Amino acid sequence: MSDTPFGISLRFALFYGALFFVLGVLLPFWPIWLESRGLSAVNIGIILAVGPWMRVLVDPVIAKAADHAGAGRRMLVLAALVSLVAFTGFALVSSFWNALLIMLVFAPAYHALIPLGDSQAMTAVQRHGLDYGRLRLWGSITFIVGTLGIGALLTGRDPDLILVVVGLGLVVVLATTLLLREQNETRGHARWADVLSFVRDPRFLVFVLAASAVQASHAVLNGFSGIHWKAAGHSELVVGLLWGGSVMVEVVLFAFSGAVVLRIGASRLLVLGAGAALVRWLILAQTTALPGLAAAQLLHAVTFGATYLATMHFIAGHAPEGLKATAQGAYAAVSGVVMGITLIVAGKLYELFAGGAFFGMAVLSAGALLLALAVMYRAARD
Are 140 and 20 in contact (CB under 8 A)? Predict the structure, then answer.
């Protein structure tokens, strides 16, 4: 593959495709595999919270090192390799503690791939005039393939099939990181004081807190929707269709993301994401009927997709040159704190109230909406 804009775009499309295929299997079906090992809802919530909590410690350090050395691509390769090796350990899991120990290694390595990859991609977007949404949409497409494919394969079969599919997917992720070219330049030593002065900016903090709260409000959906919908009588295939269908609308959004961001702006996109999340969780709290689930899932393009685009473009537009990866790491850390807390709470809420746990996510979304409106008001004044 050449180093022309097309060649660079193709490399990132392959990377996002492999990365989000794995996520498309893990998000809806990993809790089902954990439940098959006898774990309770609270234990599942704790294990799922490991990734966000570890990101608080790991992502800022990795991102700062990537900015310092211009070594984002090498960090990606290392994270992909550690993810693959660690994940093989799940084949030996027999208890909550086994799963927790392995997750302490796998989760931070795998989740570090997203901010590191986004930092590289956004630098390439600015340097070569690429469209970020059209790079990222391939991840959404393969996410659909992952959810639908494993949903069809898993129906009536051993949940251990999830381990095989994810393991093979991680091999492909590693291969795609080897194809990437370094996009960031060596910055030299960036002092933590420089980093802190940027992340303490009220505009950055409030925006990141609002975006993190919207994404964290997906905790019950990510952790327990598969279990909840199966308990309501829906098959693994239907669960896969609900997840895959939700991302199809997201693909359309990403395909036209350049025009959408230009017309609406990052702060308004964030308001839309928070408002849609509030509506989505209120629907899911009150029904497991297929029409209601389908309607709620169609909002995913706004609750996740619009919020994600808003965050990426806000960071790219406001982070100083040479601190792009560091800014991504700071966002990942804040997001990790909020998501980690929410996942643990989600496990307890689901254990107590089942589908009523979505009401808790609606409250979180309402708080995010207030913050997002404050961000939009500030942006309108500036």
Answer: yes
With beta carbons less than 8 A apart as the criterion, state whether 299 and 306 touch: no
Distance CA 72, CA 103 (A): 23
Contact (Cβ atoms closer than 8 angstroms) between residue 19 and residue 116: no
Distance CA 342, CA 39 (A): 19
Comparing 235 with 195, the larger pLDDT belongs to 235
SS3 assignment, position 4:
coil
What is the band of 157 on the pLDDT scale with cuts at 50, 70, 90? confident
Q: How far apart are CA 23 and CA 16, in angstroms?
A: 10
What pLDDT is stored for residue 69 in this prediction? Answer: 47
pTM, to two decimals: 0.73
How far CA 313 is from CA of 105, 351, 381, in Å, comes to 30, 37, 19
Answer with the residue of higher pLDDT: 115 or 369.
369
Return phi, psi of residue 322, to 5°.
90, -5
In the prediction, which pLDDT does 62 show?
62
d(Cα 370, Cα 303) in Å, to the nearest integer?
15
- Cα Rg, the chain, nearest whole Å: 19
